[in-house]
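B., you asked whether I could sanity-check this one before it goes into the benchmark set. Here's the sequence:
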Amino acid sequence: MPKEPTALNLAAIAPNPASSQSLVQQLYENLRTAVLDGRLPVGMRLPASRLLAAELGLARNTVVTAYEQLMAEGYLESRTGDGTYVSRALPDELLTVAGFVHPGKSPPPAADQRLSIRSQALATANLGPWGQDRAPQPFRPDLLALDHFPIDLWGRLVSRQWREATLALLSYSEPAGLRALREEVAAYLGAARGVRCTAEQVLITAGAQQGIDLAARVLLNPGDQVWFENPGYRGARGALMAADAALIPAPVDEEGIDIAYARQRAPHARAAYVTPSHQYPTGVTMSLARRLALLEWAEHTGAWVIEDDYDSEYRYNCRPLAALQGLDRAGRVIYLGTFSKVLFPSLRLGYLVVPPAQVDAFIRMRALSDRQSPTIDQAVVAAFLREGHFARHIRRMRALYAERQAALVEAAPAILGNRLTIRSADAGLHVVGWLPPGVDDQAVAGAGAAAGIDAPAVTNYALAPLPQGGLILGYAALTPAQITEGLHRLAHVLADFVPQG
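And here's what the prediction gave me:
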């Protein structure tokens, strides 16, 4: 004889006819809540659907539908010939780990907390504010004018890709990247940067940082010497240090990295990392003579050149210079670029151009790194390039950034006097303000940070002493009014360090 159901508080589960929710949804939620808070205990037998419908004054189908939804989600279970019961194992319990430690409590320290030598070196290196959510302040150099990005257009492209998405687009794709994007990148680089490549040589990466990391892991052995610009980009320094490279700091002058010095210091280095189009952070452009000397050294010694072309699109006073890769006849240049500086940083898409003989090795390493970049994002960028939106966006932003650089350079002398020497740059999203010799730029930058000025010290980017310190001043995200206000704040800071001459 079937077991009688336990008494049920009908008032607690009865739907409200005046509610905007359907009767089925109300009954489902009321029953689910009663199960979770224990008013319907585990193992309790519920009334038959016909009986419960009569008691609540509902259509039987309403009760059946609510029961079926709760059974499908695991809150109820049906026992053949015996009725409907509250499940023994509720689905919400299966989502919680037994013995869960409250997030506010720290686990006890391990007996052995030693890190690898590589990790310890990275922890003590001055590589930048990784992971910090820094509020936008003048003159933070890595900010863009994101309020001028065509968000509505981008949204339409994203929506279209999702509407037209195939199963292939939602599945795993080539570690080298979406073919459509690789073709667009190859075509763009050939026309705009003089890069000689096919789509087969292009690898899509998670930004330029992953490109540098891949190049280091594919090309370098522990202890290999690498020429490194002094001062130079700290993200690249970190990636090379993580590969156990021995960095050889080479001075940067008005022609770029000093090739003669580097050859004398480390003639048989395994590689050189350079930013020839717009040296980071000084902003100088490598001369043709230095470019040819660098390529001749690489060909003669079998070394690699890692060319970081991070913001070459923004050149203001002349046509963009052809990439170093376009001059390479020996297949020694690994070229990399990023969409972070021309679209928006959170996109995290960049690209590598690799000599044909090394493509397979890079693809294997890319597959082991993080398998692939998001395919939908790649498809959107491919459409952005293919339909001409990218070229139009670059033209608009180039004009805007040129205007903002001019506002900074023109306003600085009247506000700062001779405490900081700022000259216009041919390219890029920042300029360097040079301090008088002997002034501690790190102390100035620290005081600036306390005053709401985010202008990093140039010496933070140096591996070896520099003859002069300075501040890196980003202007891309600032209106002329914000630039002027920031310069006045900076003037108050500088007054404590540099007497007015």
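One thing to flag: The first helix runs from residue 10 to 13. Otherwise nothing jumped out at me.
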